Amino acid sequence: QKEVEQDPGPLSVPEGAIVSLNCTYSNSAFQYFMWYRQYSRKGPELLMYTYSSGNKEDGRFTAQVDKSSKYISLFIRDSQPSDSATYLCAFRRNRGSTLGRLYFGRGTQLTVWP
Amino acid sequence: DTAVSQTPKYLVTQMGNDKSIKCEQNLGHDTMYWYKQDSKKFLKIMFSYNNKELIINETVPNRFSPKSPDKAHLNLHINSLELGDSAVYFCASSVERGDTQYFGPGTRLTVL
To answer: Which of A56, A32, A99, A105 is nearest to B94 (CA)?
Structure first.
């Protein structure tokens, strides 16, 4: 079983739609949960970051973590064409020799059309 | 006011050549990383340096050799390039190990 599973899509939605992006993971040592956004031909940029189960909201974005199910989600409300990008989930342990190593999903390509 | 910069942005070269990619960060961070992103967008760590000391070295062929002359620079030298080395290579940095990582714009390497 892969440590991180993420559906690569592509996902295409109309402007204004609610988008749901998901990842599952198998490593119980993962304690930090992140979503990165990567525009075409650019480097990934951190979008959301959390370390506990539950929801974290930032504007139109909500990150949800369910540690018991090893499942994380990113919701985008009122999606905009400028949200068109690849979204990568990422995970990190909180201790050990590989502290700092990020484990990425394969990314979900999202297109929001006007 | 570039945070993490990489040079060159594009690199096209023949199989068997040796090439280097340079990375610099002006954020004052202690930790730097090299990642490889393949054609399917899978991003995987290769190396990490903390204060010029190698702390993460994933299973990477020894044709790849990172070099950190100082805290602000982490260069990647690749010997005897192979077709499978074609990818986008990203440099990143963080304040310390375990902190938020900031990525550079990437270097697109094509080996012919």
So the answer is: A99
Say what the pLDDT of residue A9 is: 84
Nearest alpha carbon to residue B13 among B106, B108, B89, B90: B108
B89/chain A closest Cα distance in angstroms: 10
pLDDT 10s digits, A55-111: 999 999 999 999 999 999 999 999 999 999 999 999 988 766 566 788 999 999 999
Q: Which token pair is A113?
A: 């059309």
Compare CB distances from B43 to A41, A44, A45 and report the shortest one's residue: A44
Which among B109, B93, B87, B81 is positioned nearest to B9, based on CA atoms?
Answer: B109
Q: Does the beta-carbon distance from B97 to A99 stay under 8 Å?
A: yes
Q: Can you tell me whether residue B110 is helix, strand or coil?
A: strand
**Which domains are present in chain A?**
4-113 (2.60.40.10)
Which residue of chain A has the CA closest to B103? A43
Chains A and B form CB pairs within 8 A to the count of 58
User: Fold for domain B4-111?
Assistant: Immunoglobulin-like (2.60.40)
**Which residue has better confidence, B2 or B23?**
B23
Report yes or no: B22 and B7 within 8 Å, Cβ to Cβ: yes
